[in-house]
Amino acid sequence: MKLISWNVNGLRACLTHDFAASFAALDADVFSVQETKMQPGQADFAPEGYTEYTYSAEKKGYSGTACWCKTPPLRVTTGIGREEHDHEGRVLTLEYPGFYLVNCYTPNSQDGLKRLDYRMTWEDDFRAYLLGLDAKKPVILCGDLNVAHQEIDIKNAKTNRMSAGFTDQERAKMTELLAAGFTDSFRAVHPDEVKYSWWSYRFHAREKNAGWRIDYFLVSDRIADKIKAAEIHNEVFGSDHCPVELDIDL
After folding, report:
1. What span, in angstroms and rounded, lies between the C-alpha atoms of 172 and 195?
2. Nearest CA to 134 among 84, 75, 73, 178?
3. Would you state the pLDDT for residue 139?
4. Is 161 within 8 Å of 169 (Cβ atoms)?
5. For position 240, what pLDDT does the model report?
6. Active site residues
7. pTM of the complete model
């Protein structure tokens, strides 16, 4: 089974930058995207052979998640069941016979870390949500988790320390999530490889490969041995992020 996740930074904009061609070339069984920035019906994209599921933020032009599936899931749920979090279209969960696939766009702590306190609450509540699912069947979590976990995951670790996405607090929450029973698929397959999934639009960051690895596939520890491949497609353009891939035998 081949899974793709991509923060498209606006699906309508990405469609003007060959999203459809990239989608076809990547040929995923489930293709998950984050930051769609749209309401249902605002984009003309209906790939043959796929069923689409979307979850939009109440605020127009903001956040949002979507999945396209070759095999429809048993059930699709939106949000994490907590009122304070479920207005921004951030979590789309697909239930399959043997696992849950959770597509997540984690809140950014923002400039000046003005949303860091909210982010900490989100992290605890989201981890509890994932563990609730994991108690029933294995979980595959994908998406833009808005944190570079270790120094290997960011180009300029020293100068970015305590920037949004690389605060000690956010990194500790990722450590806590992994310790709760999850495996970072890319790092499991490529323990020492330096590869990034997001680059700022400023300062020619992508040309210089001054990036961050903030897009992930995490899997329940008990299915980590089923991982066949984990890749970062930094050759694919169309967004400030690139697609990430998980191949798993489930």
Report:
1. 21
2. 178
3. 99
4. no
5. 98
6. 105, 144
7. 0.98
Angle between helices 116-134 and 168-179 (to 10 degrees): 10
Residue whose C-alpha is closest to residue 66's, from 99, 82, 42 = 42
CA atoms of 209 and 105, how far apart (whole Å): 23
- pLDDT, tens digit (0-9, with 9 covering 90-100), for 79-129: 999 999 999 999 999 999 999 999 999 999 999 999 999 999 999 999 999
User: What string of DSSP letters covers 65-132?
Assistant: EEEEESS--SEEEES-S-TTTTTS--EEEEE-SS-EEEEEEPPP--GGGTTHHHHHHHHHHHHHHHHH
Which residues, given as ranges, of the chain have pLDDT below 50? Answer: none
pLDDT at site 148: 98
Q: How many residues does the chain have?
A: 250
CA triple 83-88-90, angle to 5 deg: 100
Q: Give the burial class of 33: count Cβ atoms within 10 A of its Cβ; 0-12 exposed, 13-18 middle, 19 or more buried.
A: buried
Tokens of 163: 């920037």
Enter the tokens of residue 16.
Answer: 């003007």
| CA dihedral over 120, 40, 99, 195, signed as positive or negative | negative
